[in-house]
Amino acid sequence: MTINRREFLLFLGATAGSVALNSCQQKFAMPFGDPVNSAKDTANIPGGINFQPVKGPIPLPTSSAVAETGQLIKISTASAEQQMQAYSAYEVADDLVLPEGFTYDIIAAWGDKVGDSHFGYNNDYLSFVETGENEGLLTVNFEYISAKPWIQTYQKVIGKSLPFAKL
Known about the structure:
Blueprint: H1 5-29, H2 38-41, E1 64-66, E2 72-74, H3 80-86, E3 113-114, E4 117-118, E5 125-132, E6 135-141, H4 147-158
Antiparallel strand pairs: 1-2, 3-4, 5-6
């Protein structure tokens, strides 16, 4: 087997990256708490996190739900009857649903003026990089659109007709 310099350097980089990521594994396994002291802080919270997760439409092994008796049960250890009772109804909300105690603020929505343009549609990535105390850079990515709702709502949101001739 022969290996060239580029392949060898790529191998070394991948090895170093794997070692570095492995050393971070414990930290990222418990991103919301101190792994050393997490047992006392999160003893009754599923998955060891320090907030009660939002109930999803289908049960996951890490899910918990409130049983008819009012007690919190872990879905993976609950009986089939308890699971059916806990997930027999689900309310869909057209909103960002957050765990209790969390809030959000809308800073830009589709069509909002940003400089000489408008805030985009169907964002699929958002990041915030802190650059100092109480300041940072917000990065937003718009990679694709869902054609039907975009076409149906463009004029209402942007305030002018969609320029089909340019498309």
